[in-house]
Automatic annotation (TrEMBL):
One of its GO terms (cellular component) is plasma membrane. It comes from Rhodopseudomonas palustris (strain HaA2). Transmembrane segments: none annotated. SMART domains: AAA. PROSITE patterns: ABC_TRANSPORTER_2. This is ABC transporter related. InterPro entries: AAA+_ATPase (IPR003593), ABC_AA/LPS_Transport (IPR051120), ABC_transporter-like_ATP-bd (IPR003439), P-loop_NTPase (IPR027417). One of its GO terms (molecular function) is ATP binding.
Length: 245
């Protein structure tokens, strides 16, 4: 792990359903840095997030946060350390108002947070929906904003974001892009971002890691990885099937 990294994994191996899903995946991210992860469908990106967030234990390898090994720590304990995760589909509770969701997040665990904390989190993502609105009536962008606000009020130092732009139109993606830049560059949050939109990675990612079939095939700036022959092969060979994801 690089000396200044806040979060890292080393040589992660994972088997699921008797199949090898991840082999030898290592990465690290520094405060304020955005690390993009791309790769074709089935490359193992989401499985890697399962391991990084603590939902699944790897077969081999380690995960570390702030210089401390946390491989055996479950999801809720990692959240308390300051590692937040967002999912591809922004699922919000069906029977709660926006205010109730924010309150539940404030009181999910100690220390309980104040309404000011929640307001701060909501303000950072520009979430301006009245508290009385039912959360399941929100559009995709506002669902994402609400869920990110719930994480931000805890002042996380690492965010694992799985395709946060999925289901958004271009103007919304631009807004999200601005929000993420503020989180990384002004709040100094380390962000690991699964994203297949090159435009978003181009403006946001400091480095990009490319996965294919459970392995890392390239890592570097977006310009560098696009010139990499293995990346080109993975990109063009899978293009008919949807390209990089
Ligand atoms: N619970 C599971 N049991 C068995 N195999 C699984 C399980 N979860 C995922 N896989 C397999 O692991 C491989 C990696 O899947 P994963 O969803 O991590 O890839 P991905 O890169 O996120 O793909 P996508 O871009 O389509 O989301 C796939 O072949 C998938 O079928």
């Amino acid at each position: 792990m690089a000396a200044s990294a806040i979060f890292s994994c080393d040589q992660i191996g994972l088997d699921l359903g008797g199949r090898s899903i991840l082999r030898g995946i290592s990465l690290d991210v520094k405060p304020g840095e955005v690390l993009g992860i791309i790769g074709p469908n089935g490359a193992g990106k989401t499985s890697l997030f399962e391991v990084l967030s603590g939902r699944i234990s790897p077969k081999s390898g380690t995960v570390a946060y702030g210089g401390r090994e946390i491989t055996g720590l479950p999801l809720h304990r990692r959240a308390r350390l300051g590692i937040g995760r967002t999912y591809q589909t922004p699922i919000v509770p069906e029977d709660m108002t926006v205010a109730q969701v924010l309150k539940a997040a404030r009181q999910a665990y100690r220390p309980y947070l104040t309404p000011d904390d929640a307001e701060w989190g909501a303000g950072l993502v520009g979430f301006r929906i009245p508290g009385a609105m039912m959360a399941d009536r929100l559009d995709t962008l506002n669902r994402r904003k609400l869920l990110i606000a719930c994480l931000l009020m805890r002042r996380p130092s690492v965010l694992l974001m799985d395709e946060p732009a999925a289901g958004l139109i271009n103007s919304e993606i631009d807004e999200l892009d601005d929000i993420m830049r503020v989180l990384a560059k002004e709040l100094n949050i380390a962000i690991v971002l699964i994203e297949h939109r090159m435009e978003l990675l181009d403006t946001l990612a400091d480095r990009v890691l490319v996965m294919d079939a459970g392995e890392t095939i390239a890592e570097g700036s977006l310009a560098e990885i696009l010139l990499n022959p293995r990346v080109k092969a993975a990109y063009f060979e899978t293009d008919a099937g949807g390209g990089l994801h």
